[in-house]
Amino acid sequence: MTATASANQAEVVLVGCGCPLRGMGWYHAVQMLKDKCPHAKLCHVVEPWFLGAGASGPGGPEFAKFAEETATSHGVQFHKSLADLPAIPDGIKRLALISGRTADNPRLLKESIAAGCATIYLEKPGAPTVAELETMQKEASDAGVAVLMGYNKNVCKFVTKTREYAAENPEGHVTFVSNNTYENTPESLGECFERNCEGMLKNMAIHELALLVSFYDVTVENVESVVADKEFSSMQTLAGPSGKEWTDFDKIKFTITTKTGKEVSVQADRCGGDVSYGMVTINGDEVFRHSMPDEDDLANVTVLEKEYPGAMPYFFSQDPDYITVKDRVADYCANGVEAKGVATLQIAVDTLKLAEYLTPTLKEQLA
Question: Which pTM was predicted?
Answer without folding.
Answer: 0.91
